[in-house]
Amino acid sequence: MKRISIIAFVLMGNLMFAQRDLTIQEATMGQYRSFYPKSIFNAQWQSNDKITHLNSEYTALTSRKSKDNWAPKELISLEDLKTAIKTRLPKASLDVTRFPNYTWKNDHILSFQISNKSQTYFLDYDINSKAIIRDMNIDVNAEDPIVSRNQDYIAWLKDNNIVVTNSKGQNIDITQDNTIDFLNGSKDTHRNEFGINQGMWWSPKQDQLLYYRKDQSMVSDYPLVDYSTRVATVKNIKYPMAGMANEQVTLVIHDINTGKKVTLQTGEPLDQFLTMVTWDPTGNYVYVGVLNRGQNHLKLNKYNAATGAFESTLLEEEANTYTEPSEGLLFNPKNDKEFVYMTELEGYRQAYLYNTDGKLLKKLGFKDVVVTDMLGFDTDAKHIYYIGTDNNGLDRMLYKVNLKKATTEKITTASGTHNIVLNPSKSIFLDQFSNVETPNKTSIVEVNSKEKSVSISEAENPYEDIIDMPKMELLTITAADGKTPLNARIIYPTNFDENKKYPVMLYVYGGPHAQLIQNNWLGGSSLFFQYMAQKGYIVFTVDNRGSAYRGKDFEHIIHRQLGQVEMADQLKGIDYLKSQNFVDSGKIGVYGWSFGGFMTTTLSIHHPEIFKVGVAGGPVMDWKYYEIMYGERYMDTPQENPEGYTKTSLVNKAVELENPLLIIHGAQDPVVVQQHSMAFVEACIKAGKQVDYFLYPTHEHNVIGTDRIHLNQKIADYFFLHLAPARESN
């Protein structure tokens, strides 16, 4: 076992101040409120040498200029904005209590949105005249509005349909489907998998709207019961369970001027997935990633935007496990025949430069770096910039790629997490940096002269002299394969004494798309875990194989056998704990949510000799009840992989439950439907096994808002009841 010498913080008691433990309220809400480190909010580049951000009270917009060495100066006050709004819209009754989020349209006009009870307003403010110079408004209940670049149109969703509002305030009904069976323009297409985060795209000329049209008439209705009415009512959602009928999606182009519609001829089978949707810069073509239902064969296809006809397949990917497209194409601003394509085909999600004939021009990847955020081209299109991993996946760094030479330079150097905002020319960037020892440090840095860095904000430790925070360490352990390094995190009890024995809370997720351990402030942990450590628990976490940002082989090992490799790696973490003299090996519990709830139940059932208590929130109990898009990617269908589904099902293993297990579920959960936990509870009843169950009637997959205080108290109380730390002797 290798230990990384990163210690989060050991807050020394100051004799002048009495430090205390967190309250359950602070442990739940304080991380993003009272204890949130000082920072810069909503930073936006006004021009290449000017940056703006909101002040800490959200009462003004602050400007910083290169010529002033980035010193702060108020640019727009909230009162300025309110006066301008009142002048332009005297009858709108807009109560603006804080400076809104904004974007710069150019160096003197900023755009923002505000709402009253009936309308949402899209406004442009001129900083020179201190006036609102443009306004449009749509229904306040409009969903997913997308504004055309010329701001002549706003496309938005009303129920299942698309409406476009023009600059004259006229509403145009683009679609008119009055049934749940058809959904238009929704970002929820394919249940948000494959990187889908929008369902409508304006053409480069802003005169056509491309959108998803989803036929879900063949998908089963799934009932969610609303208990708040006098007599409980049922809301049906469409839920495509693994192995059953899938939604059928097409892409449609609507011409705003003529009203003509063209459907892209994406072909059959109709239950395939359509993603990576990208307009060609000329507006003449649309590129679509067409993925088969088995999710192991991807085609990047080109379609004629005028006719919808298929033009060509530029490239294909096939895999023995699965291929997972996650973003559209990034076109070269200086050459509309070249684009950047993202794939993990060669082991890590990295960038490749192609032309529109499908020819690979350059491989732009770097070592084992996983690209997490593509930041785009510089002004001359000689370089691209992205955020990528480092330090075994723990860090986030800024990288610069020379397109001609296909060479990569790591721009940031300090180990930790760098949140970057590049200026338009990509010559200067705002760097908001943190690691386990640094709450937040914000600097402005020149890309080509990194020594020219100006610190503009540095946060003090928000807990110092207030909260007696536990010690935390990031570790490296070895996976069950005997060779793969795994990141781990341990939080020690307050006033830790290595000569004492402590109970353990293992916090687990373990599934794809998630990373619990990061080199940032608090190490990726929640304040709730600090709270539990203050109560006398060691809180331990491992990012096992199958989790995110470590490459294809690291994740794909779980294919067709969810929970098996993950369990083996979690047990290696337990082996590490048991090797420590300060661990009470007879008092180890486990807690997790969603995939973590699945892992909690898996560990509890398979290893009752280790895990004496478990709390499983929103747990998958049988993958046949889970959705097609995520579930079939990792497990194939129940028909194709019956052994895998049987092996990973926890419902048929309820008879093996020995120790206390608390299952928590949201009654309105549309992700892991309540049928999972109900099936497991019923199996426990049939097997004569006692299990504890708690339902949050109004919550979906996660318990949010102030009700989360209740949730965290319930979890803590369950550990206090069944896995209490030893009492101190007098």
Automatic annotation (TrEMBL):
It comes from the Bacteria. InterPro entries: AB_hydrolase_fold, Peptidase_S9_cat, Peptidase_S9B_N, Serine_Prot_S9B/DPPIV. Residues 118-439 form the Dipeptidylpeptidase IV N-terminal domain. Residues 529-722 form the Peptidase S9 prolyl oligopeptidase catalytic domain. GO terms for biological process: proteolysis. This is Dipeptidyl-peptidase-4. It holds the Pfam family DPPIV_N. GO terms for molecular function: dipeptidyl-peptidase activity; serine-type peptidase activity.
